[in-house]
Amino acid sequence: MEQLITDFISKWGYTAIFILILLENVLPVVPSEIILTFAGLMSVKSGLSIPILFLISTIASFIGLLILYYLCRLINEESIYRFVDKHGKWFKLKGKDVRRANDWFKRYGAWAVLLCRFIPVLRVLITIPVGINKMNVVTFVVLSLLGTTIWNFALILLGRMLSGSFDALMAGLHTYSYIMYVIIILAVLYVLYRIFFKNRNRVK
């Protein structure tokens, strides 16, 4: 997958970035960590402009997240679950993951939308319950673009900073992934602690 993405970007430049980022915001099979960090690398190797890369990736993100949002808003909730249960393997999705994301969104609301924009896969997955629950589109767009602009700029800048070594770039991506997994685990433990603490107080 990584090799196909980097080859596509090397050949088609800005057009490839737009297409890949749009797809990444509709389907979680195209990782933006690879797309944008390699784009940052290409800003040194091939002279791609950082401002243009940032603008293109942000516009593509905006279009992609709106497509998924309105699809999930217009389609019946159970139909979405059935589709994911039947075809989700092609997109690395499971019905239970979507249901959990829905429960998480109902619990944390707007905070979930913003924070998930910084977490691989969840940055796309959270849009599904947002659409299902018909969150105000303006609120959704503002929160999503806030997280997306920071995410896109950080990854492009990371790629440029690591342009001296492609291996170092890939290592940086893996390190980031591990950090995010640790953060997710800590967040889950914190939520479980709060639930246990509240239940214990109620018993008292």
Automatic annotation (TrEMBL):
Cross-referenced InterPro entries: DedA_domain (IPR051311), VTT_dom (IPR032816)
Domain spans labelled VTT: 30-160
Membrane-crossing segments per the record: 12-36, 48-71, 138-158, 178-197
Primary localization class, coarse: membrane
Name of the protein in question: VTT domain-containing protein
Pfam annotation, one family: VTT_dom
Top-level division of the source organism's lineage: Bacteria
